[in-house]
Amino acid sequence: MSAAVEFHRTERTRLDEALTRLRDGARVWAERPLAARIALARSMLAGAARIAERSVADACVAKGLEPGTPPEGEEWLSSPYSTLRFLRQVVRSLVMLERNGNTPVGRTGETEDGRLTVRVFPANRLDALLFMGISGDVHLEADVDEAELHRSRASFYKRRQHDGKVCLVLGAGNVNSIPPTDVATKLFNEGKVCLLKMNPVNAYMGPLLEVAFAEAIASGFLAVAYGGAEEGAYLASHPAVDEVHITGSDKTHDTLVWGPPGPERAERMARGTPLLAKEITSELGNITPVIAVPGAWTDRELAHQADSVAGMVTHNASFNCVSGKMLILPKGWPLRDRFLELVLERMAMTPARRAWYPGSEQRYRTLTAGRDRLRQLFGGEGTLPWTLVTDLDPQDPAEKAFSTEPFCSILFETQVGSDDPIEFLEAAVTFSNERLWGTLSAALVVSSRTQSDGTTAAALERAIRRLRYGSVSVNVWPGLAYSSGTGPWGAFPGAPLTDIQSGRGFVHNTRMLEHVEKLVVRGPAWSAVKLPYFPSHRAAHALGRRLASLEEDGSLAKLPGVVAAALKG
Description:
Layout: H1 12-31, H2 34-50, H3 52-63, H4 72-100, E1 108-110, E2 116-121, H5 125-130, E3 135-140, H6 146-152, H7 155-158, E4 166-170, H8 178-189, E5 193-197, H9 205-212, H10 214-218, E6 222-225, H11 229-236, E7 243-247, H12 250-258, H13 263-271, E8 279-283, E9 288-292, H14 299-314, E10 324-330, H15 336-347, E11 353-354, H16 360-368, E12 374-377, E13 383-384, E14 386-392, E15 410-416, H17 421-435, E16 441-445, H18 448-452, H19 454-466, E17 471-474, H20 479-483, E18 488-490, E19 506-508, E20 516-522, H21 540-553, H22 559-568
Parallel strand pairs: 4-5, 4-7, 5-6, 7-8, 9-10, 9-16, 10-15, 14-15, 16-17, 17-20
Antiparallel strand pairs: 1-2, 2-3, 3-20, 11-13, 12-14, 18-19
Helix pairs in contact: 2-4, 3-4, 4-8, 4-21, 14-15, 17-19, 21-22
């Protein structure tokens, strides 16, 4: 079936029938022993591997990517690779639960303010070899000690919290690994069966997922449906649905929870009586800040990080909730102009992309209209140019770029603080927390000298702690936090339903940790091996394909091919 085929809306009677099957399956699934869960996870892993090639081909058609070129690598990495990695880590955690009574975690540590941290990446020696110098640590909430860490994780398996629940998963349309990994999180971390409603944007993935997850569907643990907002609202309010998970926009979330905009919604919000009186978890986007810290930068570090920042913008045509959107630079930084030129130079290595996500052209026009400090690269009919908008006034309360997620090919720049690293970090964190919409992810770009100096290193750690984001990355794209599999992915906890920001709850999190505050991913300021999201990577398509194949079974025989493709980058 071609990616261009338009899918019909699933009829109400079929939605009702699917939910009846799922209600029966929910009770069965809640009681399934670990051995049966492991078997199903392995079946889903094998199924995801079988559809990998076709899913990439269909996505390339839908997004206008030329097969056999580096941009094809984006689809290999953000869809089959991420899905396969997640499912393989699910299998490992379930096996260790059966064997040892708990999921595996790495070493523990402590933040500068005394909170417990636990390492979740690299997950094994293979990760350590492939992602040399990159690590991921979960920061836990205050007052959680090691005893509570070990007691609380995988809580569904230790203290079964329900006798069967049905979760409606409203799938994302921009990244094709989001729907299957959201479903698998609910199935295996929380013991809930799922009705997955595909987003119309990537409904072409639905039939492939039905093939890949045929065993789960036949067993009554999963169903796949199609349609738009009308079907989503019907399912969310259906009495057979216990809870909802949505990856999408905060506007869609608020319409589901509070009703359409107007006086009635405002009254409900004021009273605290939502229209949807069900548990809802969500991931709803972000204006991702990229904070470039002044210091003693080498030329190769600056160029390496400019390549990284450019990739945060160009990946997936910038239709990512985790795309780099707000470059925060120090006032008076001598390297500002050089860094901006390097970022533009690297962005120019990626051709202009088709404006395939609905509404992107209108958003682009709205956010660029009347701007005089604007630089555009490429563009043309049906595409959007890579665009850098500089010199935004950080004090302007009316600046739309601080409150509107662009979800298109724009990188904004503003300047705060000074070129003193400590003063800048204080100002940049305050600006990010208080002026930018969203709580999902933030990135810091820091030289090796700044990280090795005791005073500035301590300021960096304070900044990481203060940033109110569910993932914070240092010298790598927060997209690595999403694709790690072992790490939790979601917004900073605590958002009320009346001001949801980037959402509530965490997905992925194959180590099944509780009491999560944020995931912190760190990488080197420079590496001889480029990460595959860099625009300058010449073999991202080959590397993506080989990494996906490696995640299918973890065979070391595939490692030389992966290394060869990585070195060609």
